[in-house]
Amino acid sequence: MKYISTRGNVEAIGFIDTVMMGLANDGGLLIPEKIPQIPAEKLKEMSQLTYQELAYEIISYYVAGEIPADELKELINKSYATFRDPEVTPVKKVKDNMYVLELFHGPTFAFKDVALQFLGNLYSYIFKKTGETINILGATSGDTGASAIEGVRGKDGIRICILHPHGRVSKVQELQMTTVHDESVLNLAIKGTFDDGQRIIKELFADLEFKNKYSLRAINSINFARILAQTVYYFYAYFQVTKAGDIKSLNFSVPTGNFGDIFAGFLAKRMGLPIGKLIVATNENNILERFIKDGVYKPGEFRSTYSPSMDIQVASNFERYLYYLLDENAKEVSALMDQFKAEGQIVVGETQLRQVQADFAAHGVAGEDCLKTISKYYNETGYLLDPHTSCGVAAYETCSAPEEVCVTLATAHPAKFNESISLCDIEQIYPEQINQLFEKPQYLEVVEADNDVIASRLEKHFNTSVAQ
Ligand SMILES: *Cc1c(COP(=O)(O)O)cnc(C)c1O
Q1: Is position 198 within any domain?
Q2: Does the keyword Lyase belong to this entry (predicted)?
Q3: Which residue among 360, 388, 391, 417 has the greatest number of ligand 1 atoms within 8 angstroms of its CB, and so is best to mutate?
Q4: Which residues have CB under 6 Å of ligand 1?
Q5: Burial, 170: exposed, middle or buried (Cβ in 10 Å; 0-12, 13-18, 19+)?
Q6: Atom of ligand 1 nearest to the CA of 143
Q7: Which residues pair with 190 in a beta bridge?
Q8: Which of 205, 230, 145 lies closest to 23 in space, CA to CA?
Q9: Which of the two ends of the chain, N or C, has the fewest CB atoms closer than 10 A to its terminal CB?
C-alpha cells in the first residue's frame, strides 16, 4: 500500500511517511494509491467484531505491515481505553428508522477524539521507533485543539501548537484547550476566523524549508491517519444497525465542516460497505450544500452560528473528493485548485454534477431550525442533541425518506455547547470532567492572524520548549 498526492507530484510513499508528511509536499493531500476492497464475505466476518478488533482489521489494510500486528493492536487498544463507553462509539435508536452514532465518549467529548487518540499514540510510537522530532502544528474551529492536546500531552518527544479563532469557540472548548499547563503545549488565539488559521497553517506547511527545519507535523484532517480512524465507525454503526433487522441500505447524515468525517464515509463506501445516501449536513456556512446542488464551489460570507465547529468556508478535504470525482486525474485536480486560488471558485460540468449528486445529498440548516430541532427531539424523545448533531438530524429529516433507515453522527456532547442549548430553555447537567474545567487557570496568547507573527512565535516554542 502506497500513498500519492491528489496533485500528482509526490513520489509514492508508505503509511508512516504519509502520517509524518501531513500535507503533501506539492500542496495536495495524500491518498491511498488504491482503495482496498473488502469482499462481502469478509464484511460478514467483521460484523461480529468488537470496536477495537474491527479498527485493527480496517487500519491493517492501510498500514500494510509497516507496524507489526501485536504493536498495532496494542496501539489501538490504548487509544480506545480512554473512552467512557465500552463500545467506544455506541449506536442509539432515537425513533423508528432513526439512529444516532454517539462519537463523543472520548476525553474531550467530541468525535475528534476517535481519530486523535489514535494519532497521538501513533506519533508517540513513531518517535520511539525513529527518534524523529514531532512538532505538531494545527488549527482548530474548537474541538480539534482540545482533542489533539489531549491526544499528545505527557507523551515523550512531542510538542504542540494550536491556533484557534479568538472568541469564536464555545467556553467549554476554550477551557479544554487552554487549561492544560504544560511547557510543550502552546495555544495561540488568533484575531480572525478558523479559515484564517487553516490558511496560515497550510501556507506554513507548504513552505518546505520552514516545515523541514521545524519538523512540522499535522493533526488536522489533512492527515490521512485521521480519515482512516474515522472510517472504522461507519463500519461499526452499519453492523450494529443491520444486525437488528433486514436493512438493504443505510443512510448516514454527517454534520460537516472540513469534509473530513463525510470523506471517511465516502471511503468506507468505496471499500465496499453498502452505504445508501451520504448526507452532508452544514449550517449557514453552506459552501458544500451549494456545491452539491449547483456544482459551484465558491466561499460565501462567513457566518458565526450555533454550531461553531462547522463554521468553515473552505473545506480542506474537499480536494480528496475532487480527485475521485475527476477519475483520479491529478493533473486536472491541480489545474482546478490553481483556478480556485486565482478565481476564487470551482465550477464542474453537468456529468460531474450528476456524479456529485449520486455520491451525496446535502442540506444547510438555518440557525433557527438548528435550535428548533434540539427542542423538538428533547420534548418528543428526551434525547438532547448538541447543535452540530442537530444540524445532522435536521438534514436527515430533509434528505432521508421516512421508509429509509438513517444514522446521524452525533459529533459532540451537548455540554460543550451550552450557549446554544440554553437558548432552547433546556437546563443540562454537566459531566464532572467538564464542571472541573471552570476552576482552572487558562494559558493562551492572543496574536494577529499573520504568517510572520505566528512563524516567529513557533520558532521560539519549537526551539526552546522541552518536549516532555
Ligand atoms: C469538527 C467537527 C465537525 C465537522 O467535521 P469535519 O470532519 O470537519 O467535516 C462537526 N461537528 C463537530 C462537533 C466537530 O467538532
Answers
A1: no
A2: yes
A3: 388
A4: 110, 112, 143, 221, 255-261, 309-310, 388, 411-412
A5: buried
A6: 15
A7: 165, 447
A8: 205
A9: C
Q: 316-362 pLDDT, tens per residue?
A: 999 999 999 999 999 999 999 999 999 999 999 999 999 999 999 99
Distance (Å, rounded) from C-alpha 167 to C-alpha 170?
8
Q: What ligand 1 atom has the least distance to the C-alpha of 388?
A: 11
Closest of 182, 180, 129 to residue 159, by C-alpha: 182
97 torsion bin: left (phi>0), alpha (psi -120 to 50), beta (else): left
Q: Is residue 165 part of a domain?
A: no
pLDDT tens by residue, 87-110: 999 999 999 999 999 999 999 999
Side-chain-side CA neighbours of 297 within 13 Å: the count stands at: 22
User: Is residue 48 classed as helix, strand or coil in its secondary structure?
Assistant: coil
**Which atom of ligand 1 is nearest the CA belonging to 316?**
8
Cell numbers standing for residue 349: 460540468
Give the per-residue pLDDT at 327: 97
Ligand 1: residue of 102, 222, 256 to mutate (most ligand atoms within 8 A of CB) is: 256
Percent over 70 (pLDDT), the chain: 99
Angle, CA of 18, 23 and 24, to the nearest 5°: 70
Residue among 2, 6, 3 nearest 324 (CA):
6
If one counts the domains in the chain, the total is 1
The CATH number of residue 393's host domain is: 3.40.50.1100
Asked if residue 326 lies in contact with residue 333, where contact means CB atoms within 8 angstroms, the answer is yes
User: Which domain, by its residues, includes 408?
Assistant: 91-109+225-424
How many A from CA of 203 to the centre of ligand 1?
A: 22
Quote the ligand 1 centre to 41 CA distance (angstroms): 32
Q: What average pLDDT score do residues 48-56 get?
A: 98
For ligand 1, atom 1, the nearest C-alpha belongs to 309
Distance 148 CA to ligand 1 centre (A): 14
The C-alpha angle with vertex 305 and arms to 302 and 311, in degrees rounded to 5, equals 50
Residues involved in catalysis: 112
- The per-residue pLDDT for range 422-468, each reduced to its tens digit, is 999 999 999 999 999 999 999 999 999 999 999 999 999 998 766 65
* Start-to-end Cα distance in the chain: 33
Of ligand 1's atoms, which has the minimum distance to the CA of residue 261?
7
Instruction: Please indicate, yes or no, if residue 336 is contained in any of the structural domains.
Output: yes
| 8 A C-beta contact, residue 275 and residue 43 | no
Q: Model's pTM, two decimal places?
A: 0.96
> Residue 344 corresponds to which amino acid?
G
